[in-house]
Amino acid sequence: MNYEEIIKDIYTNVELIDNKGNLPSYIPELANVNYKNFGVYISTINHLNYGIGNYTDKFSIQSIAKVLSLSLAYSILGEDIWKRVDVEPSGNPFNSLVQLEADNGIPRNPFINAGAIVVSDILISNLENPKEDFLKFVRSISNDSKINYSTVISTSEKNVGFRNIALCNFIKSFGNIENKPSEVLDFYFNLCSLEMNCKQLSKLFLFLANDGCSLFGNKQILTQSQSKRINALMQTCGFYDESGEFAFKVGLPGKSGVGGGIVAVHPKQYTIVVWSPPLNAKGNSYKGMKFLEEFTTKTKLSIF
Question: What is the CATH number of the domain that holds 105?
């Protein structure tokens, strides 16, 4: 498979289309990003790598980090984690409060904001120095010590994070938050502020294409079963209330972030990251979704 040639062709075509997406103005710092940025990077299990466009420019990975926090919490708690958070698609926007009351404070899945806040609470309860230990975990998977939080982004999110504050306190009222909401939210805002480029993110996620085993140092991050379940959650819940559409058109486990990034995983084969900041109405990268649909169509490689 000539990934380089296919990616070049699709990139050229998608770059020319009218970008109907918008920058996320509700997080001030994300609205300052150049909307023309567009990068792609693929990493394969067989060590074939290729990037095009702005693939070395760092961006805020936002909700893509929820996969990493879930992976760490899952590795610590094992199957007990599902007592605190469910595994069902939500069918609602990522920051919705609607279902929490009916579900007695148990978020529908770990990738909506409510679920990721509960996962943050779990990590605070189980790590000695949560922010430092989580960053160490991310760096160890990727073999990249340069990955870091963005203070500017996390501060920007804290200043406008009223709905997340409401979510955390609402879940606390049901007893599904053990720690102080202020501590949980501080950790949550920081993990969402992680900055990486397409190349770093693609290499980082290879462990989920490799049965939970990192290609750097052959370290087992998750068991094969846990890796399978994380991929299943990305497939069914990785794009909020557009997850069905992504499964239908792209056919890969994946996760998006409002920073404009999308990571997609083909188990046993590759990870691919696309970054284009303008978002569609569901909060997913407009061009990123178009690119990945074309990519799996032309390569005829999806999990289906």
Answer: 3.40.710.10
Q: Is the CB of residue 15 less than 8 Å from the CB of residue 274?
A: no
Examine residue 304 and state whether it is found in any structural domain, yes or no. no
Residue 264 lies in a domain: yes
Question: Distance between CA atoms of 189 and 192, rounded to whole angstroms?
Answer: 5
Predicted local confidence at residue 176, as pLDDT: 98
Cα separation, 180 vs 41, whole angstroms: 39
Distances from the Cα of 38 to the Cα of 15, 98, 201, angstroms: 8, 34, 15
DSSP assignment of 28-57: GGGGGS-TT--EEEEEETTS-EEEEESTTS
Residue 155 lies in a domain: yes
d(CA 230, CA 236): 10
Statement: residue 102 has pLDDT above 90: no
In the chain, what percentage of residues exceed pLDDT 90?
Answer: 88
Q: What's residue 207's pLDDT?
A: 97
| Predicted model pTM | 0.96
pLDDT of residue 218: 83
Give residue 45's identity as a one-letter amino acid code. Answer: I
Q: The domain containing residue 158 runs over which residues?
A: 3-299
Q: Is-contact 164 117, C-beta < 8 A? A: yes
Contact assessment for residue 19 and residue 287, using Cβ atoms and an 8 Å cutoff: yes
The DSSP string of 85-125 is: S--S---S-TT--HHHHHTTT--S-TTSHHHHHHHHHHHHH
Q: What is the largest CA-CA distance in the chain?
A: 54
The pLDDT score that the predictor gives to residue 96 is 75
Distance CA 295, CA 52 (A): 14
| CA-to-CA dists, residue 238 to 126, 148, 201, 245, 264, angstroms | 25, 23, 16, 11, 10
In the chain, how many domains are there? 1
Which of 129-133, 239-243, 275-279 is predicted least confidently? 239-243
